[in-house]
């Protein structure tokens, strides 16, 4: 599979166009923490996390890692763990990766604002399951669960995700 390319029509990958949602703030070349925008640029896929109580590991690439009960993602620009995985308890602002809803049952991590995170440049830019078609994210790219599961086996670390603004 070649690059994944976000177009105004959807996410082009594997010779198909997959419907997707983006951030409520649209696409931006000046991403800021909390702006709700999807950052433009060339990003790399860096990891895959999944809920082992909801998805079978055998349906996913071997490099996918389970989400634990205490797994978080720090989104506090003033904290040393900003834009990095963390574990509960954490007093800093964060997102729980093990959510009650299915949005994070499968998460594809990107290298947005990594490896040296710049405070305030945005965090937790993932590819995950959407709430419903057309419903915006907080800055991530979201797909239908079935589509994300269909793409998962062919995604590899280092694959480019191109977001054009």
Describe the structure.
With 165 residues, the chain is mainly β. The protein is 4% helix and 33% strand. The chain is built from one helix and 15 strands, in the order ββββββββββββββαβ. Strand 2 and strand 3 (16-18) form a beta hairpin. The longest helix has 7 residues, at 145-151. The radius of gyration is 15 Å and the shape is globular. It starts with a strand and ends with a strand. The model has no long low-confidence stretch (mean pLDDT 96).
Order of helices and strands: EEEEEEEEEEEEEEHE
| Shape, per Cα inertia axes | globular
How many separate helices? 1
Distance between the termini: 23 Å
Mean pLDDT: 96
User: What about the largest sheet?
Assistant: 10 strands, mixed
Number of strands: 15
The residue fraction in helices comes out at: under 10%
Segments where pLDDT lies below 50 for 5+ residues? none
Strand content: 25-35%
Roughly how many Å is the radius of gyration?
15 Å
Which structural class do the helices and strands define?
A: mainly beta
Labels describing this entry:
ten-stranded mixed β-sheet, 165 residues, mainly beta, three-stranded antiparallel β-sheet
């Amino acid at each position: 599979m070649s690059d994944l390319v976000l177009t105004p029509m959807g996410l082009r990958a594997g010779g198909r166009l997959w419907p997707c949602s983006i951030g409520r703030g649209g696409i931006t070349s000046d991403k800021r923490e909390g702006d709700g925008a999807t950052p433009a640029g060339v990003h790399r896929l860096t990891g895959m996390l999944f809920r082992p109580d909801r998805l079978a590991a055998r349906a996913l690439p071997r490099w996918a890692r389970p989400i634990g009960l205490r797994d978080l993602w720090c989104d506090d620009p003033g904290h040393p763990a900003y834009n990095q995985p963390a574990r509960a308890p954490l007093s800093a602002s964060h997102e729980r990766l093990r959510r009650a809803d299915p949005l994070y049952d499968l998460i594809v991590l990107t290298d947005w604002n990594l490896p040296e995170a710049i405070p305030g440049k945005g965090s937790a830019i993932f590819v995950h399951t959407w709430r419903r078609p057309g419903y915006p994210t907080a800055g991530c790219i979201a797909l239908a669960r079935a589509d994300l599961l269909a793409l998962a086996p062919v995604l590899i670390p280092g694959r480019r995700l191109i977001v054009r603004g």
